[in-house]
Specification:
about 240 residues; alpha/beta; eight-stranded parallel barrel; 8 strands; glycolysis; TrioseP_Isoase_bac/euk
C-alpha cells in the first residue's frame, strides 16, 4: 500500500521567519499521509531543525558530488543538511536552466547515491496538451528521465501539466485520471512490483478547495503543491483532504 504524500515546493520563496509555517503544520502530521516541505536551499538545515514529523527536501541538486560548480548544491550537501527528498526535473528548472531529460536522469541518480528519495517531475506544455501529444510526452519524459533502479522507496513521480502551474487552471478529473493511469502502467511495465509501489503525485494549482476531488482520482497518491504550500493555513487544508481521501 502506498503512503500518500503531501509535498510543498516553496520555490524561490521563504526567509527565516517563514519557518513558522512549517512549525504550524505539526497539528496536521498525525494522520496517515506523509508531509514534506521543500524550502529554498538557504532554509533546509534550519527547517530540518524544527520540522518534527515534516520531511524536508531540496528543490534541485547537481549531478556531481562536489567540485567547481559555483552556485550549485550537491545531493550530498542536502543529505548532510538533513534532507530526505530532492525534487528533480521541475518544469521551471527544465525551462529556466535548460535542463534536459538526461540532466534530470543524472540528477536523480545523484540523489539516490546520496540516500535521498527523488520527486521527479514530468508534464506537458499547453501546446502538447492541445495537440493531443500529452501521453506521448509523458512516455518520452519517463523513458529518458527515470533511471534504471527506481523503486517505490527512492522515486516519486510528480505529474505537473506546465500550463496548470501557478495559473489557477486545472485539468479535468478525467484528464488527470487518464494521465495518472498511463504513468502507473508505464511504471509497472518497466519496474514490475516496484512500479506499483511508487507514489504518483498531481501538481498544478492544487488548493484546499479542489484538493478533495483531485485526491479522489484513481492513482493520485498526493500532490506537489507550490503557492498553497507557503501558508500552513492553506497547506493544512490540503493535508487534511489527503488524509480523508
Ligand atoms: O511544484 C509545484 C508546482 O509547480 C505547482 O505549483 P502551484 O501549486 O503554485 O501551481
Amino acid at each position: 500500500m502506498r503512503i500518500k504524500l503531501a509535498a510543498g515546493n516553496w520555490k524561490m520563496n521563504g526567509v527565516q521567519a517563514s519557518l513558522a509555517e512549517i512549525s504550524a503544520l505539526s497539528d496536521h502530521t498525525q494522520g496517515p499521509s506523509e508531509v514534506a516541505i521543500c524550502p529554498p536551499a538557504t532554509l533546509v538545515a534550519a527547517a530540518v531543525a524544527i520540522a518534527g514529523d515534516v520531511a524536508i527536501g531540496g528543490q534541485d541538486c547537481h549531478a556531481k558530488t562536489s567540485g567547481a560548480h559555483t552556485g550549485d548544491i550537491s545531493a550530498e550537501m542536502l543529505k548532510d543538511a538533513g534532507a530526505a527528498y530532492v525534487i528533480t526535473g521541475h518544469s521551471e528548472r527544465r525551462e529556466d536552466h535548460s535542463e534536459s531529460d538526461a540532466d534530470v536522469n543524472a540528477k536523480t541518480q545523484a540523489g539516490w547515491a546520496a540516500g535521498l528519495s527523488v520527486i521527479l517531475c514530468i508534464g506537458e506544455s499547453l501546446e502538447e496538451r492541445e495537440s493531443g501529444a500529452t501521453l506521448d510526452r509523458m512516455a518520452a519524459q519517463m523513458a529518458a528521465s527515470v533511471p534504471d533502479g527506481a523503486t517505490g522507496a527512492n522515486l516519486v513521480i510528480a505529474y505537473e501539466p506546465i500550463w496548470a502551474i501557478g495559473t489557477g487552471k486545472v485539468p479535468s478529473l478525467d484528464e488527470i485520471a487518464e494521465v495518472h493511469a498511463f504513468i502507473r502502467k508505464t511504471l509497472t511495465d518497466r519496474f514490475g512490483d516496484e512500479g506499483a509501489k511508487m507514489r504518483v503525485l498531481y501538481g498544478g494549482s492544487v488548493k484546499p478547495s479542489n484538493a478533495a476531488e483531485i485526491f479522489a482520482v484513481a492513482d493520485v497518491d498526493g500532490a506537489l503543491v507550490g503557492g498553497a504550500s507557503l501558508k500552513a493555513a492553506d497547506f493544512s487544508g490540503i493535508i487534511e483532504a489527503l488524509n480523508a481521501a
